[in-house]
Amino acid sequence: MSPLTRKLFRDLWRIKAQAVAIAMVIAMGVLMQVMMTGLVTSLDETRQAYYDRYRLADIFAYVTRAPEPIVADLRQIPGVAQVETRIMGSALVDVPGVDAPLQAQAVSLPDFGDPRLNDLYLTDGRKLDGTRPDEILLLKGFGDAHGLQVGDTLAATMNGARRTFDIVGLVQSPEFLYTIAPGEFVSDDSRFAVIWAARSTLAAAYDLDGAFNEALMSITRGTDPAAVMDAADRILDRYGGRGAYGVADLISNRFITEEIGGLSRTSGSVPLVFLAVAAFLLNIVITRMVQSEREEIGLMKAFGYSNWQVGGHYFELILTIAAGGALLGCVLGIAAGRGMVDLYLNYFKFPFLVFRLDPSAFVIGVTASILSASAGGLFVLRKVFALSPAVAMRPAAPPDYSRSGRFGAAAARFMDQPTRMVLRRFTRQPFRMGGSVVGIAAGLALSTAMSSLLANFEYMVDVSFNAIDRSDVTVTFTHPLERRTLFELERIPGVIEVEPVRDVAAILGRGVKTYRGGISGLGVDSRLYRALDANERPVFMRSDGIILSTGLASILGASAGDILTVDVREGRQPVVDLPVVAVSQSLVGAPAYMEIEALNRALGEPLRVSGAYLRIDADQSSQIYNALKDRPNVAGVSLKSDARDALVKLVDEGPGNMRYVMALIAGIITFGVVYNAARIAQAERSRDLASLRVIGFTKAEVGFVLLGEIGIVTLLALPLGSGLGYLLTFVVAAAFSTELYQILPIVNPANYGTAILIVIVASALSAWLVKRDIDRTELVLALKTRE
Amino acid sequence: MIQGMAMTETAYSVQKLRKIYGEGEAAVHALRGVDLDIPKGEFVVLLGPSGSGKSTLLNILGGLDRGTDGDVRFMQHDLAAMSDAELTRYRRDHVGFVFQFYNLMPSLTARENVELVTEIASDPMDPDEALDLVGLDHRSDHFPAQMSGGEQQRVAIARAIAKRPTVLFCDEPTGALDSTTGRAVLRVLKDVNERLGSTVLVVTHAASQAAMADRVVHFADGDVREVIVNETKSTPDEIEW
Ligand SMILES: Nc1ncnc2c1ncn2[C@@H]1O[C@H](COP(=O)(O)OP(=O)(O)OP(=O)(O)O)[C@@H](O)[C@H]1O
Ligand SMILES: [Mg+2]
Fold first, then answer.
1. The domain over range B40-68+87-238 is classified in CATH as 3.40.50.300
2. DSSP 3-state assignment of A165?
């Protein structure tokens, strides 16, 4: 081994604590990169594999009622590989111990044999026996939520008739990875059931003998789905076709796509921020290290080592740390990715797992760290090149404190020597001190942004359920009813207030951008459910046009004054052009609103409501649920408290966990930054401090010189870091926002407080570690050699 | 390598060499027009008060620094005209240094400090042999921090002679040594001078050491005051301490 290589290893060992801190920071950036891209790839591939293996249809088409022989026509469409027809119906199920009736979807399976499309994954029990009409399969998520098992019975109301079924099997389905009840925006396993029954059973229940109300199609590779959908629409139009849609618009799939998309966007931006902080830190540390080794550098040059040889030596040091960090990050990233993938798989209820690490994540992560380290290396090279070997002949020139002389004279009367030593360092070496300040500020910014992210979810829940939706119960009807039905709801004892809502499914379009969603019709001054602006002030409903939520406005690229094409997907299915009159703040989902009667007029269905918002007396809730359950035409009753719990659960248990991972990483990085700054300060001053001790200063006084410096650096970093954190919050909010929920760049004092607390704790801990080191230092050794 | 004792050839020829540190009012005139010839293969002692510019001159002759103006030639080569890369080559191939402040690498052991030089030299000694010459073969695995000032200085000397330099610059090589080790070090320098034919330049405050030199240069206030050529030289053992 050459002496330089040995020096490299010894130097690494000497600065091991610092090297580890830097490597950790780099590792965290790489960890994020590897973990998140690995997650995205794994989820994507698992989803695809699941869809393929269980033959999920490519195209779905609802009709009111179509005779079975039409299937032959559908098969004729060029590019169609398989066609399956089935019967879908809405149902209400009674679960023991639950007052409110729960919404359910009934899906038919062929009486004999497996379905050609949309097969099921049986987790417990057996398949249906076509000869027994009372058997059903139940979605496992719902069964688990209510402790329902194979052998139990389940009472369901279908088309007004109530009957009891035997559960013979629990299943998972690629079509219902993410279930969501009509009128709600958050998935909750316990509040929406899917049951599968024999075709003949459901045909009897829904009056669809010899007919179907949904067609499923798969297409051959390379076929344009839009063309097939058009052809299917032409065939199904006269049977009440509601327009075929592709798997991309399947609700369950759409939610997963959004989740994965959000994750993918986050993985494209957040790790880079982390890596940038790490790179910056590495630069500060290495530049300073070169400064402190100027003597050695001059010496090597004096012996005839070339600039490149000397520079290369320090470059190797940088790269060793960077590569070590990157490697560690890869390993940790794999572990963290595996953990998170498990979590997500559970959450999405994939029956199996395709764990795939994206090799490009490693390449990007490692390259980014090496590159950023090399950028730091360039500064180092420049410094090495600029150093004249003559300096090796003399001990490091004492820093010139003469410039701070005037300041010193003026302040001298008020300050003792150690205080002056602390302050002069700032006037004398503003750039070094500035580097530390910026480094710690960057850590603070990261923590601020992450803590704001954590707070944001709480804010979202708060606004959604306390400001936007102020009702207690949402009732959904099976189909639009006459408005006077609401009077009957008002008469139920305990119901305090009833407000109408008309939800219409529609495809909203502007130019080539379209969104399959809906419009909610509300009363002009609706109080139980409101649209709010950015300042949480109500936006009143208008008759002359649509109010878009911010989420939808950004999807469509629309703003007030634009005209939208609204392709209504129910009833008589009119296509109308409506202007956008305002944009409201939305945090969850991508809703659109309009004054209810104006909406009804546009649909040609005056005085209709599809549901109602209720405010009730909490003491009588149980009687109210029972009264609602017994009413005809009620498709669903959802309690706000349940919906709220579901949202909280969603962000806390599912992907929301990512927030904590990130907050933890931000904390580690912040600590790494602060600790480094403290170590550097110690390294640069160890000789001074030892000299002070020798001439009779106490340990406490000496400690003050160093800790005072760390303290002032930290104090200066606080305002700067808060400012940077404010900016970073916007970046992170944009990266985390999805179609499902918008993250606002909220920066409140509490977030700053948390972040500042993290920094101060990190500072105090670092200071303590460093101080402990100073106390242990042998004076003689410190004087003899440089640290 | 340059062998032989041809006293007539000049190793260094210096003319009107000036070195000014800093600018304006703060300017320090470290060298004020030095004229000096140093014949090849001689043992030269440089004497002078502190701050008179001895180290500065050594730096420039050794290719570590450049003069502000004036002419410096090493065997007909103009040092002032050399590029940085050429100066590096020059140092690597010809020059050995013993610095005033030892300047050992704290993270390398004694032997490794010597290897640092032998590794890039064209015809070096064995590092252990060099350490043996300064009487430190038994300390070769110790780090600088584990050695006394005198021992560190001897390691620095071993490091300088290990490459068999054409010229050897020593800035107060015996400053921290007692008479016994000091004499031993002087013997080594003399040995290098006589056996390898290296030109040796020694800066010292001890005027008595001038007795063993071929040539004594008296320095004061940034200039050469007097050059004395010794007709007879004493051996290191005869030097008073
Ligand atoms: N880098 C520098 N910047 C400014 N002045 C310098 C610098 N290096 C040396 N000097 C000044 O140049 C003059 C000559 O310094 P030099 O180190 O050559 O003296 P010296 O003869 O070696 O002294 P000593 O015997 O104390 O080592 C001194 O006045 C010194 O202050
Ligand atoms: Mg000197």
1. yes
2. strand
